[in-house]
Specification:
- By secondary structure, the chain is of the alpha/beta class.
- About 45% of the residues lie in helices and about 15% in strands.
- The protein has 2 domains: about 30-115, Rossmann fold (3-Layer(aba) Sandwich); about 140-265, NAD(P)-binding Rossmann-like Domain (Rossmann fold), CATH 3.40.50.
- The chain has 11 helices and 11 strands.
- The chain has a 6-stranded parallel sheet. It has a 3-stranded parallel sheet with strand order 3-2-4, sandwiched between helices. Strands 9-10 form a two-stranded antiparallel sheet.
- It is globular and about 55 Å long.
- The chain binds guanine (GUN).
- The site of guanine has 8 residues, from strand 4 and helix 6.
């Protein structure tokens, strides 16, 4: 069996066009969605991610602002900026790029972001909303994976789904979202003994461990759907995922590539969440219906 390679770039383009349509509708109500990004320090990967987010904002028609702080910035300065942005009606999404330097109390910073503008979905209120299945902002990477599966009409209901990686950003929210859709979910992580005994059972395998070549063909069930969330830069400068793409492609039914798979969808779902936030803002504003009718 040779897998269909899911084109995350093409899907991202389609979803961004859907976002642009909604941006135009919002313009009729006098609202332009705005995203503020806070970047602290000089982490090279974070700079690339932030640039990609700003480029996506321009493509979709969002207003964007970037606040850059030096690596030795104080937590108080960053929190003051977030509080100012919380009160700014032209900003509908606020995102603090992670990781933060070690002097920052991560939870304190994330809990400062207004839960109504928390387009990453990292505020504890939004984490809790995900747990009880009443999601406000789905975290962008698992949201992108969900959209990829939907785009190929791959139902997760009743399927064995194995998530490799238990991070707060990807693995845990992914598992919760899949559970909400009635999948049977197992989460594996760095301490899992004999990873293959779990992965071989997966109808759908989502890998977000950050280890090149962690998943090889013998670990994958024939016909499985394999979603690779990993992004690893090798010594020769090339980008690879966590899955041995060429080997596993011969055994799976669907597979995502790295680059060109989940990555473009992560940024795209950030646009989606920001547009959604602006729509909620407009709907909650007195006189919104009148402006729409005008
Ligand atoms: N760092 C790595 N992934 C992410 C993400 O999805 N959001 C933020 N804010 N930082 C990240």
């Amino acid at each position: 069996m040779v897998a269909k390679v899911i084109d995350g770039k093409a899907l991202a383009k389609k979803v961004r066009q859907e976002c642009s349509v909604r941006v135009n509708e919002l313009a009729a109500g006098g609202v332009r969605p705005g995203l503020a990004v806070i970047l602290v320090g000089e982490d090279a990967a974070s700079k690339v991610y932030v640039n990609n987010k700003i480029k996506a904002c321009i493509e979709v028609g969002l207003h964007s602002e970037v606040y850059r702080f030096p690596g030795d910035a104080s937590e108080a300065a960053v929190i003051a900026e977030i509080e100012r942005l919380n009160a700014d009606d032209t900003i509908h999404g606020i995102l603090v790029q992670l990781p933060l330097p070690p002097q920052f109390a991560l939870r304190k910073v994330l809990e400062t972001i207004s839960r109504d503008k928390d387009v990453d979905g990292f505020h504890l209120y939004n984490v809790g909303s995900l747990v009880v299945g009443d999601t406000v902002f789905p975290p962008c990477t698992p949201f992108g994976v969900q959209r990829i599966l939907e785009s190929e009409n791959i139902s997760v209901q009743g399927q064995n789904v194995v998530v490799v990686g238990a991070s707060n950003i990807v693995g845990k929210p992914m598992a919760l979202m899949l559970m909400q859709k009635e999948a049977t979910v197992a989460i594996c992580h760095a301490k899992t003994r004999d990873l293959a005994q779990f992965t071989i059972l997966a109808d759908i395998l989502v890998v977000a461990a950050g280890k090149p070549n962690l998943i090889t063909a013998p670990m994958v069930k024939t016909g499985a759907v394999v979603i690779d969330v990993g992004i690893n830069r090798l010594a020769d400068g090339s980008l690879v995922g966590d899955v041995d793409f060429h080997g596993v492609k011969e055994k799976a039914s669907y597979i995502t590539s790295v680059p060109g798979g989940v990555g473009p969808m992560t940024v795209t779902m950030l646009m989606w969440n920001t547009v959604q936030s602006a729509e909620r803002f407009l709907a909650a504003r007195p006189g919104a219906a009148l402006e729409y009718a005008a």
